Q: What sequence folds into this?
């Protein structure tokens, strides 16, 4: 009916309080274990990504150094030899220009590798900046 009112009273009885507390503690411990598992997984993923980026940086550094040591001196020698041949009348101007273009291409290739290595180092450095272990983990400078 519209003119009726009902009132309810709730009185907690302290029966089996230990069991209820144990359930609450167990639930809290389960949440803690879940959070720790998530943290450990995120840490493993972070470390794996860091290792990949560091390996990429080292690989690009080695490739750039190998290119600078092997290809650039050969390209420069070819330019010098072609110029000498041109001076002696044994080569054409087109051959000299082709040798110079090859030397420029080799330098450009080396610069592109150095750029990629710098980008990889920036990723590694950015990842390590949060930890503060940049100088310890990678030996310091790039």
A:
């Amino acid at each position: 009916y519209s003119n009726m009112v009902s009132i309810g009273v709730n009185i907690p009885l302290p029966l089996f309080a230990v069991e209820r507390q144990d359930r609450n503690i167990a639930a809290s411990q389960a949440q803690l274990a879940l959070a720790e598992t998530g943290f450990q997984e995120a840490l493993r993923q972070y470390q794996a990504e860091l290792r990949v980026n560091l390996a990429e940086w080292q690989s690009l550094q080695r490739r750039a150094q190998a290119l600078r040591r092997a290809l650039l001196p050969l390209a420069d020698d070819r330019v010098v030899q072609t110029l000498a041949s041109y001076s002696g009348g044994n080569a054409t101007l087109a051959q000299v220009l082709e040798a110079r273009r090859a030397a420029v291409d080799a330098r450009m290739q080396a610069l592109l590798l150095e750029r990629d290595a710098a980008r990889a180092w920036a990723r590694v450095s950015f990842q390590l900046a949060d930890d503060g272990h940049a100088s310890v983990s990678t030996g310091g400078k790039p």
About this structure: Residues 133-142 have pLDDT under 50 and may be disordered. The two ends are 83 Å apart (CA to CA).
